């Protein structure tokens, strides 16, 4: 498996306080925060909504329900991995096309410039984490932006080994 650039996981990209009714609302709030920090281009919001509609990213794992939305590199200002633990679970469409919503407790938004190879490494690492009850519990225990960023970065490194 490839390596994950964990330098892209930063406390300034961890958000615990987003209270969203649906994925579009979450994207609007996240987009505003990413934009003010210089991570995305003006086309990001429409692009992430269109991509999510065409290729849903909701994933119901045994331990946690997650979503891993992303966009093509031309909508990214500088690379990032944003982590959102919303105030309440946000419904996403199931990536397998199932007619049951995935109520995402955690949303990992990938903003990667070297699309294919970097994305595969990150997705593989995240899947290894989300399939492990103990690792999911470690993420759930985090209460600070710093703790979440450090824990997710460490777990990604471990998962890629």
From TrEMBL:
It holds the Pfam family PTS_EIIA_2. Gene3D superfamilies: Mannitol-specific EII, Chain A. Transmembrane segments: none annotated. Residues 7-155 form the PTS EIIA type-2 domain. Keywords: Sugar transport, Transport. The keyword Nucleotide-binding does not apply. The keyword Transport applies. CDD domains: PTS_IIA_fru. Coiled coil: none annotated. PANTHER family: PHOSPHOTRANSFERASE SYSTEM MANNITOL_FRUCTOSE-SPECIFIC IIA DOMAIN CONTAINING PROTEIN, PTS SYSTEM FRUCTOSE-LIKE EIIA COMPONENT-RELATED. This is PTS sugar transporter subunit IIA. It comes from Kribbibacterium absianum. The lineage of its organism: Bacteria, Bacillati, Actinomycetota, Coriobacteriia, Coriobacteriales.
